[in-house]
Amino acid sequence: MVSARGLTREFGARTAVEDVTFDLEPGQLCALLGPNGAGKTTTVRMLLGLIGPSRGTATVAGVEVPNDQARLAALRGRVGLLTETPGFYDRLSALENLTLFGRLYGMEGATLAARIAEYLDRLGLAGRGDDLVATYSKGMKQRLALIRAIFHHPDVIFFDEPTSGLDPESARDVRALIRSLKQAGRTIIVCTHNLAEASELADVIAVIKRKLLAFGPPAALAHDGTGPRLRVVVAGDGAGAVRLLRGAGLVVESAADRAASPATGPSGDAAAVATSSGTGPSGAAALDVTVADLADTPAVVATLVNGGVPVLEVRPIRASLEEIYLKAVGADG
Amino acid sequence: MNPVLSIFLRKELRDLRGNPQVLPGYLILPLMAVVIPTIMLAFMPFDPTAAAAVDPDIVALFRLASRDPSLAVFPERERMFRLLVREFVSFFLLMPVILASMSAGLAIAAEKQQRTLEPILATPLSDRDLLLAKLLASLVPAVVVTWGAVLLSVIATAIVTDVRLGAAFWPTPAVLVTILILAPLAGAAAALLGIRVSVKAADIQAAVQASGLWVIPAGILLIAVVGRPAARSLPIAFGAVVLVGAIVWWLFRINLRKFEREEILTRWV
C-alpha cells in the first residue's frame, strides 16, 4: 500500500531525507520516529506528492510518486493527512469547515452530512458543530483535524502527533479510533515523539534521522539483527551452563558482560538482573542466550536440565522502544 | 459554477464578514465613492465667478472644462458638472483594484498563517482550481461592491443634476463599458498580482505591504493610461477591455506556472 524506494530530498546543499526505502502492507501501522528536523515531515510530504523527491520513487495507494498533477490529485483523494498543527478557518463553524473539506474530497449532500455527524459524535464533538472554530479549545481542534483526516475514508492515513494537546481520556479514545482504522485495513503512518503511544499502536517502527536508521516490527528490532534472545537465570556461577549451551552451538553472554558493553545495547532490564545476580549473593548467574527462534526455548531449557544445571528463570528479552530508538539515533551520531 | 469554486467563494465571503483587515475597506471606499462626488455635484457653483468666492482652485477646473473639446457640445453651465462626473469614473475603476488586491494579498498568506494551506493542498484540489477560486474570491466581492456603489452613484448623480441643471446625467456607453467590464478586469489583474505577492510573502504583514507597494500603484498607472481615455470613447473602451483582458489572461498563466506547492510549503516557517 505504501512503498518507498531510495527516497531522497535535498534542499540546496542540505539533504533532508536520504535513500529511504520501506514497504507497508494494508492494515499496517508504522510509527515514524526521529528527532526534530530528522526528515519525518519531508518524508510524509513526499509520500503525499506535496513535494517531489530529488531522487527515488514511492508508490502510495497504487499511485507512483512523483507523477502528473491529475494522478496526484487522485492520490490525494485516497489519503488523509493530520498535520502537526490543526489549521482551520476560525471564523467558520466546525460544520462549515468540515463541509468545505468534505466537498474538496468529493463528498456531497446527505453522504457528507451523515459522515460529518457520525465523526463529530465519535470524536465527542456532537452538539458543537455549529460553534465557530475560534471558540474551540486546542484539544477540540485536534479532534476536528482528526475527523478531517479520516472522514473521507482514505486508504492511507498520515497522522502527525495525533494525540498532541489531548487530555488522557481523549488520547485513549483517539488511540482506540486509530486501532479501529487499522483493523479496517487502512495503512497508517504516525509521526510521533510519544514512544509509549508508538509502542502501543505500531506494527512497524521506522526510526529516521535523515536516513532510515531502523525499520521493522518492534520485536525484530529488539534483537539487534541477531535473532531473539533469552534471559536464562541458573543456580551457581553459570560456567557449566555456558559450556553446555555453547556446546549446543548457541551464542551465550553473561548479562553482566552485556550490561558493561554499550555497543551491544543492553536492556535496562538486563543490567538490573546482572547486578542483582551474576555470581552475587544469591548464588545465581544470569545469561543472555541468542536463539534462532523463541520456539527453541524448550530445547534450551532441556539442554540445561539434562546437563544437571538448575534453571531458575527463563524469559524472552524485549528491548523497550525507547532503547531501540535511542540506540538507532545514538549510533548515527 | 464549478462546485469547488462555489465552495471557496462562499467560504471567502463568510470569512470576509469578520475580517478586520479587509472589511473596513469594503465599507469606506464605496461610501467615499458615492458620497464625495454627490456632495461636490450638489454644491458646485454654476460659474467661475461664484466658484472663486468659494475656492479659487476650482476656477482652474472651470477653465479645464471650458477648454475640453469633448465637452464643447454641451451648454456652458453643464460642462463643469460633466467634467466632474467623467473624472469620478476613476473612483470606480480604482475601487475593485484596491479591494481585490487587499483580499488577494491575504489569499495565500492568510492560509499559511492559519495553517490551512497544507490541509488544502493535501486534498484533490488542482492548482488551477485553487488559483481560480482565490481569484474569484478576491474579485467577486470587490466587483459586487463596486457595481453597487456605481448604481447608487448613477442614481444620485441623475437626481442632483436633474434638480440643479434640469437635465439628468446618465452614464455614456463608454463609461458603462469602462465601469462594468474594464473595472472588473483591472480588479482581476490586481488580484492576480496580489495572489502572486501572497504566494511569495513570508507573512501576512509582508503580503499586505507588498500588495500596497506594487499592486495599487500599478493599478493607478493602468487607470491613468487606459481607464481615463476609455471613459471618453467607446472604441478606446473596447480596446482597453481587450488589452487588460489579455494582461489578465497572461497573469493567470504566469501565476499558474509559478504556483509551486513545494515552494509555498517549504518557504513558510
Note the topology.
The complex is a heterodimer of chains A (about 325) and B (about 270).
Chain A: E1 2-11, E2 14-24, E3 29-33, H1 40-48, E4 55-60, E5 63-65, H2 69-76, E6 79-82, H3 94-104, H4 109-122, H5 138-150, E7 156-160, H6 168-183, E8 187-191, H7 195-201, E9 204-209, E10 211-216, H8 218-221, E11 229-235, H9 239-247, E12 251-254, H10 255-260, H11 268-276, E13 284-290, H12 297-306, E14 311-316, H13 321-331
Parallel strand pairs in A: 3-8, 3-9, 6-7, 7-8
Antiparallel strand pairs in A: 1-2, 1-4, 4-5, 9-10, 11-13, 11-14, 12-13
Chain B: H1 3-17, H2 23-43, H3 48-54, H4 56-67, H5 76-107, H6 109-113, H7 117-121, H8 127-165, H9 173-200, H10 204-230, H11 234-258, H12 261-267
Task: Describe the fold and architecture.
The complex is a heterodimer of chains A (333) and B (269). Chain A has 13 helices and 14 strands. Chain A has 333 residues and is an alpha/beta fold. In chain A, strand 4 (55-60) and strand 5 (63-65) form a beta hairpin. Chain B has twelve helices and no strands. The model of chain B has no long low-confidence stretch (mean pLDDT 85). Chain A binds chain B through residues 11, 45, 48, 50-52, 69-70, 73-74, 76-77, 79, 81, 83, 85-92, 96, 100-101, 103-106, 108, 145, 148, and chain B through 3-4, 7-8, 11, 14-15, 17-19, 114-127, 261-262, 265-266.
